[in-house]
Design brief:
It contains twelve helices and four strands. By secondary structure, the protein is mainly alpha-helical. Among the domains are: 2-78; 190-288, Cytochrome c-like domain (Cytochrome Bc1 Complex, Chain D, domain 2, Orthogonal Bundle), CATH 1.10.760.10.
Length: 309
């Protein structure tokens, strides 16, 4: 009896753990609020109590049957409910005499040139499994192909692609919103340069001319720069401005992505021929070599690591 109860408990525990592993995913818990989570816990506790009560009832019934069999000789010869269940649904065994007769008949009917072929009896549990697979297949076909309730593999794949596209857009928006002078890059894509040109003509042409030749502001087409000519330098000037020289900051009017676009467009204006170019201002800017960049980065790291006395 203890072995039977242990087996039942093990099966129930395996079923519960597999169900929880399938349903209780991290994303499912993440989408629940406190009230839903509390309700789920209460339902789990109630289900556990019901299972324990069922196990207790089965144990008490088995115990009472054992006691009654000991007191009544007639009942003692009768098989237990488990033995009856196993004989009817699991093994499909027949009595010994009937079994010998049936076996002899099968051997007589299936004897060919001295070779005996037995038509062995299929266990009932295997028959039920076979019937269950047929019922499941019919239900599966009706659900997915006839009614169209369930999603096919292709539909699930397309849904995953749609969700991933939304997530990719969110990640891209987050990355673009976090662009600053340390992470800005020269974006030479046609969409970025087209957007940068529109921003320049709408906001910068009044001081630097539409062709970048300069006016109130300096000429942006030559190789002379007042505050540096790298993409990071231009981004910083556009973002923070140079108020003492009349350059207003644009960080409150343009997004980081728009500032990167207009900065990239300004770099493409170098070497063009404006109609009325303004005289050079500042110094000639040359891109630092890779060795100079590495030494500058090393010097910055040393400066940060060295304590100031």
């Amino acid at each position: 009896m203890k072995k039977k109860i242990t087996a039942v408990l093990a099966l129930l525990g395996l079923f519960a753990s597999s169900a929880m592993a399938q349903e209780a995913t991290p994303s499912a818990f993440a989408n629940m609020d406190s009230s839903q989570l509390t309700l789920l816990i209460i339902m789990g506790v109630v289900l556990g109590v019901i299972v324990l009560l069922l196990i207790l009832m089965i144990y008490l019934m088995s115990f009472m049957a054992t006691v009654l069999k000991k007191d009544d000789p007639v009942l003692a010869d009768e098989p237990s409910w488990w033995e009856s269940f196993k004989e009817r649904f699991v093994t499909g065994q027949v009595d010994e005499v009937g079994g010998r007769e049936e076996k002899a008949k099968l051997m007589a009917d299936h004897s060919y040139d001295g070779i005996h072929e037995l038509d062995n009896f299929m266990p009932p549990w295997l028959q039920y499994v076979f019937i269950g697979t047929i019922i499941f297949a019919v239900g599966y076909f009706v659900n997915y192909s006839v009614l169209g309730i369930g999603k096919t593999g292709v539909e699930e794949y397309e849904e995953e692609l749609r969700l991933e596209a939304i997530a990719a857009e969110e990640r891209q928006a987050t990355m673009l919103a976090s662009i600053d002078e340390t992470t800005v890059v020269f974006d030479e894509s046609s969409a970025a340069l087209s957007g940068g040109k529109s921003i320049f003509e709408g906001n910068c042409a009044a001081c630097h001319a539409t062709d970048g030749g300069g006016g109130v502001g300096p000429n942006l087409t030559d190789e002379y720069w007042i505050h540096g000519g790298s993409i990071s330098d231009i981004f910083s000037v556009v973002k923070y401005g140079v108020v003492e020289k009349g350059m207003v900051p644009w960080e409150d009017q343009l997004s980081p992505e728009e500032i990167q676009q207009v900065s990239s467009y300004i770099l493409t204006m170098q070497g063009t021929s404006p109609a009325n170019p303004k005289e050079p201002q500042g110094e000639i800017y040359a891109e630092p070599s890779s060795e100079e960049s590495e030494s500058a980065s090393s010097a910055d790291s040393t400066a940060v690591a060295t304590p100031v006395e």
